Each structure stands twice: as structure tokens, then as C-alpha cells.
Amino acid sequence: MITNDNYNQEMENYETDHQSGAQPEVKKRGRTREVVAREVEKTAVGDVQLIDKVVHVNRVAKVVKGGRNFSFNALVVVGDGKGKVGFGLGKANEVADAISKGTELAKRSLKRFPIVGTTIPHVIIGKYGAGKVILKPASQGTGVIAGGPVRAIMEALGVRDVLTKVLGSTNPHNVVKAVFAGLEKSLDLQKVSSKRGVSKRQIFAAGALREE
């Protein structure tokens, strides 16, 4: 059985083991702790370096006879920084195990999304549940104007210039799923050109890309 003291010790041990990386911003909210956009490690798969970021760590308490049992779930985003990104939710009795499971699930769900230079190809609106996210392309040098879960996804995807806004629910799970729902609808210039049977120049002349 994991007690409050054990939980605190578990979090401290985990943070100590990852001192070499960027220091996370940890917010205490009752019995949960939110770890915002923590870069865990860069894992080599073949010749590709994958960027792992922990978006959220949550503690779940189950009341049983004689006390409470605690478990953890971790929301992790993984990407190669070149247009591929995925996410996973890992659950375990320890923080490190939950993050490891989430990382493995995220690696299995990697998908490629279109990016143009250092930004996204067009305005994207993603919705999931009560969450809504708006992503807008930005000129080079703007940077990633985003916070928390959206920033983690954009950095793992390889987008370095983008404007974002989260509307509605700010629950990390809803936000992450809303971003991926929007990215699923993003259009690639080459595919749109072949689908419509027109040149890329004609598409640009007609204005922004529109989903048919």
C-alpha cells in the first residue's frame, strides 16, 4: 500500500533520477501533481532520435478496507521532431513504470502529419469533448506560442513557429486529444494538388487550403 509519504518520496526519487534534463514545473493540487511538458529522454530507435515528453502525471486513490491504495497514470507525448508524433496513457503503481508504459504506447501510435518549413500548413481547429484547440501558422522566428500539452506536442512534432489557443476544457487529456483530432484533418499540399487535379501554384492563387 502506498501512503502519502511514499508518494512524495516516489516523486522526489523520480525527479532526482532525471536531474540531467530540463527541470519540470510541478504544481501541487490536492492529491494530484501536474508535470507540464517535462522532457524525459531522447530514445534512439534505429537511426531516429525520439523526443519523449511527459505532459501530465496523476495519482489515483482507491479506498479499500484498511486504507487507500494509490496508483499513477502518465500522459506522454513522443515525436521525432520531423513530422511524426504520438501519445499514450500509461498506468502503474509507480510513477516511473507509468511513464515507461505511456512512452511505449506513444511510440506505437506515431503518425506523420504535414508541416511546412517550421510551421503548420494552414489553420487547424481540433475538438474533443469539451476541449477545443486552434492552431495557426506563424512566420519564422515567432516561436511556439503555446502552453502545457500543446507546446509538448508541437515541439515533439518539430513545429517551431505556431500560434495556438485553447478554448473550453483545459484538462490535459482533452487538450491532447483535441490537438491530435485537428492534426488528423490537416491537409498536405501535394495530396490536395493531386486530388483536385490542379497545380500547387493554382492552389496558392485561390487562397488558403480548404477541406472539400
Quickly describe the structure.
With 212 residues, the protein is α+β, with helices and mostly antiparallel strands. The protein has helices spanning 4-17, 95-108, 149-157, 172-184, 189-196, 200-206; strands at residues 25-29, 32-36, 38-45, 48-64, 67-79, 84-92, 111-112, 124-128, 131-137, 144-145, 162-168.
Keywords:
38% strand, 212 residues, alpha+beta, 4-stranded mixed β-sheet, 6 helices, single chain, 5-stranded antiparallel β-sheet
Question: How does this model look, in words?
Answer:
With about 210 residues, the chain is α+β, with helices and mostly antiparallel strands. Helix content is about 30%, strand content about 40%. The protein contains six helices and eleven strands. It has helices at about 5-15, 95-110, 150-155, 170-185, 190-195, 200-205; strands at about 25-30, 30-35, 40-45, 50-65, 65-80, 85-90, 110, 125-130, 130-135, 145, 160-170. The strands form three sheets. The chain has a five-stranded antiparallel beta sheet. A four-stranded mixed beta sheet has the order 8-9-11-10. Strand 8 (about 125-130) and strand 9 form a beta hairpin. The longest helix is centred in the N-terminal third of the chain and has 14 residues, at about 5-15. The relative contact order is 0.13.
